[in-house]
Design brief:
This protein is α+β, with helices and mostly antiparallel strands. 44% of the residues lie in helices and 13% in strands. Strands 1-2-3-5-4 form a 5-stranded antiparallel beta sheet, covered by helices on one side. The longest helix is centred in the last third of the chain and has 22 residues. The relative contact order is 0.12. The model has no long low-confidence stretch (mean pLDDT 95).
Length: 373
């Protein structure tokens, strides 16, 4: 926990929000690395009422006000959509608790920014895929997120991290890191640099389609990992998409691609034995089927056709970000051992290469499944 977060600071933050009941406790919660998160428990007429309190990391998200405008706008829209379908908006999406001043966040005297969500009981998160059914349900949830927000005016959202998935910009950042080479590391990783540079033409494929108006601008989650889904304890079905800090205008292909990158890889993101790294075509098919089912016809034919490119490009983009950070001296991604970011870059590039080898199979899978929806 941040050393500046004393019990008094936390209590003052809690007191700023419209919570029901009398405060019983507030304790650190979860294993997130970005925000400071607390489980707040209140007594309400003899029962427990629980909330999630978070101090937003405004060194990463430098405009918390804009971030919370995005989150509040999207969640309130989702609540209406879910209610219209006779769903349970209290469990199937997050909702923002307002402060006593009617705001979506609270800024304290130390310039900490706080927010509160109701705690969704009887749910769990998965850190890794335990069976293909879980991955399918995850895909349906992220596809459903796309469908529910398909008519939300994406252009009204703020870019909480500017040009987050704008691959041409990431490529320019990578080339600058190679040119600057402050620690003299470039010479020892020339094969990895050459791999990245040789695929420059790919970096503009999606953005060119967007800029020509051939792909729709959509509301995107931008962090579609398995552990950003709440599963229901009783049904074990995906229930709610969480961690909406990176909700921004973007391309549906970003969300699809990042899920494939993280979920259909046969090895860990930082695996040092590259023989263990590859694309699991069975999991690729599972996720593609679930994603298309969740989207339920809301994607355009071009979006569907470019799903394999979304997977490849998000993997490549992450690889050049890891390699650029290694060259710069590991200043962005947290590392736990020497060459950690280099290992991460190598796994991403190995996965890209394997996708290229399996490109025909990927495109055939997408074409076949697209006929079902």
């Amino acid at each position: 926990m941040n050393q500046n977060l004393t019990p008094e600071t936390i209590d003052k933050a809690i007191a700023a929000f419209c919570l029901k009941g009398t405060l019983r406790s507030a304790s650190p919660y979860g294993n997130g690395h970005i925000n400071d998160t607390f489980l707040v428990t209140c007594d309400l007429a003899g029962a427990e009422k629980k909330y999630i309190l978070q101090r937003m990391n405004h060194s990463i998200f430098q405009n918390p006000q804009a971030l919370m405008e995005n989150v509040a706008g999207v969640t309130s829209y989702l609540q209406k959509k879910i209610a219209e379908k006779n769903g349970d908006p209290d469990r199937e999406t997050l909702s923002v608790i307002q402060t006593k001043d009617g705001e979506n966040y609270f800024e304290d005297s130390l310039h900490n920014f706080w927010r509160v969500f109701p705690f969704i009981d009887n749910t769990f998160c998965l850190e890794k895929i335990e069976n293909a059914g879980d991955f399918y349900d995850c895909a349906v949830a992220f596809g459903n997120f796309q469908r529910q927000l398909s008519d939300y005016p994406a252009e009204t959202l703020h870019e909480t991290i500017p040009r987050f998935h704008y691959t041409p910009s990431r490529f320019q950042d990578f080339k600058k890191a190679v040119a600057d080479d402050p620690l003299g590391r470039a010479a020892s990783v020339q094969p990895e640099i050459d791999f990245a540079l040789s695929r420059e033409a790919d970096t503009r494929v999606l953005t060119d389609h967007l800029e020509k108006g051939e792909l729709p601008l959509r509301v995107t989650h931008n962090d579609t990992k398995l552990n950003n889904i709440l599963f229901d304890n009783e049904t074990r079905k995906a229930l709610c998409v969480i961690d909406l800090d990176t909700v921004m205008p973007g391309l549906s292909l970003y969300d699809f691609g990042d899920s494939i990158r993280t979920g259909a890889n046969t090895g860990a993101e930082d695996e040092t034995d590259l023989s263990k790294i590859g694309l699991d075509l069975s999991l690729f098919e599972t996720f593609t089927e679930g994603f298309l089912a969740g989207c339920a016809g809301s994607l355009t034919p071009l979006e569907i056709r470019l799903l394999p490119m979304g997977a490849k490009l998000m993997t490549y983009e992450c690889g050049i970000r890891f390699l650029a950070d290694y060259l710069a001296g590991d200043v962005y991604f947290r590392i736990h051992r020497e060459n950690h970011n280099l290992d991460r870059a190598r796994t991403q590039f190995k996965l890209v290469a394997d996708m290229e080898q399996k490109w025909d199979e990927m495109t055939k899978i997408v074409a076949r499944l697209s006929k079902q929806f």
